[in-house]
Design the sequence.
């Protein structure tokens, strides 16, 4: 008896998943197919998307692919991290002498030997893989089958990052599940609702543009794309508050701000970075300290900026909605050398402030001197 099993987080399911399963069913011709969404993948943080919603979207996306399709809640019943070898054990107990086919993408194929108890998997299942565009073949030394054709280079993380950055659902997601994502406010849609309610239209569009540029830079500087986008979309969350409101929020929530009294007297709008970080943490449950620090530092910088902080500082001043002549220069520099772009961006910010006859915060001056020392 041929048993095809397709597991994964499916967070969310996308058209690449659909194409892969459809082709596998056609080539393998299984007697039964198990689709097994992960409850808690051993390789990832537990998904904030409820299991029931991921299962619901799977049932809609995979409808009609085959008559003998079982949407299996095995991992939910396990109630914790479940390893693939355990899934294979479960199927061997469920069926008599099954011929198990394990469906994976090529990104998983090259990493299977690092999974828990891999030899058990190789001894008891045949791995079925679909090649993605750009795949560098690393011939597997265990039983496997390559499905014919090339599959789209899609990932659920990229889909999530797209939705978080833009507030829109890409066409890489099956149209039938888009209403669920909208209705349940998944993948950052609740953030967009909040921003649209609290920011002016121009500022909201700027936030989306910064998130988009942060995503592009994340590929170059090896930063998780969702992390970069989360910092970008939330960096100006506090920008909708007036100066007095920012001061009140900082005092009420005891937000620590260097040179607080001077900033309150001279340029209270600078407090928006600190308030934005507070909102990210307390309104949207962002726990990543790197994200929170990047949001805090995106206006004035600091002497110990992470790669993410540098990216956000540069993206804020050079996003495509910025119309001054040097924005294009900074943006192009950022695509080649982040530190050079950061130095140029810090220079522009200081000159803007001086030309506007505004107060120079000591933090901005300290950053400039620090960058000049590093450059030399």
Sequence:
């Amino acid at each position: 008896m041929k048993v095809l099993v397709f597991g994964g987080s499916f967070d969310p399911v996308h058209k690449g998943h659909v194409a892969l399963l459809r082709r596998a069913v056609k080539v393998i011709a299984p007697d039964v197919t198990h689709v097994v969404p992960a409850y808690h993948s051993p390789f990832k943080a537990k998904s904030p998307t409820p299991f029931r919603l991921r299962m619901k979207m799977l049932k809609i996306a995979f409808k009609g692919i085959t008559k003998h399709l079982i949407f299996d809640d095995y991992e939910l019943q396990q109630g914790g991290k479940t390893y693939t070898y355990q899934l294979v054990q479960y199927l061997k107990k469920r069926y008599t002498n099954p011929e198990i086919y394990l469906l994976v993408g090529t990104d998983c194929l090259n990493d299977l030997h690092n999974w828990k108890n891999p030899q058990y998997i190789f001894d008891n299942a045949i791995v079925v893989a679909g090649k993605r565009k750009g795949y560098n073949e690393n011939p597997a030394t265990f039983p496997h089958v390559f499905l014919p054709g090339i599959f789209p280079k899609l990932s659920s993380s990229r889909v999530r990052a797209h939705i978080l950055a833009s507030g829109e659902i890409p066409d890489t997601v099956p149209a039938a599940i888009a209403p669920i994502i909208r209705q349940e406010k998944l993948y950052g849609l609740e953030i967009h609702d909040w921003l649209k309610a609290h920011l002016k239209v121009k500022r909201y569009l700027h936030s989306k543009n910064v998130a988009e540029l942060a995503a592009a830079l994340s590929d170059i500087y090896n930063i998780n794309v969702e992390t970069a986008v989360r910092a970008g979309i939330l960096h100006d969350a506090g920008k909708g508050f007036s100066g007095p409101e920012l001061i009140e929020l900082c005092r009420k929530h005891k937000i620590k701000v260097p040179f607080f009294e001077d900033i309150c007297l001279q340029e209270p709008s600078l407090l928006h970075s600190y308030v934005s970080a507070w909102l990210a943490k307390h309104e949207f449950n962002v726990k990543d300290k790197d994200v929170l620090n990047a949001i805090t530092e995106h206006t004035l910088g600091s002497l110990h900026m992470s790669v993410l902080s540098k990216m956000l500082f540069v993206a804020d001043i050079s996003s495509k909605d910025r119309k001054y002549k040097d924005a294009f220069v900074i943006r192009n520099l950022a695509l080649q050398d982040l530190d050079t772009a950061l130095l140029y961006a810090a220079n522009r910010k200081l000159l803007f402030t001086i030309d506007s006859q505004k107060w120079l915060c000591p933090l901005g001056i300290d950053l400039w001197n620090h960058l000049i020392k590093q450059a030399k």
Q: What stands out?
A: The chain has two domains: 2-155, 201-375. The chain has 19 helices and six strands. The mean pLDDT is 94. Residues 201-220 form the longest helix (20 residues).
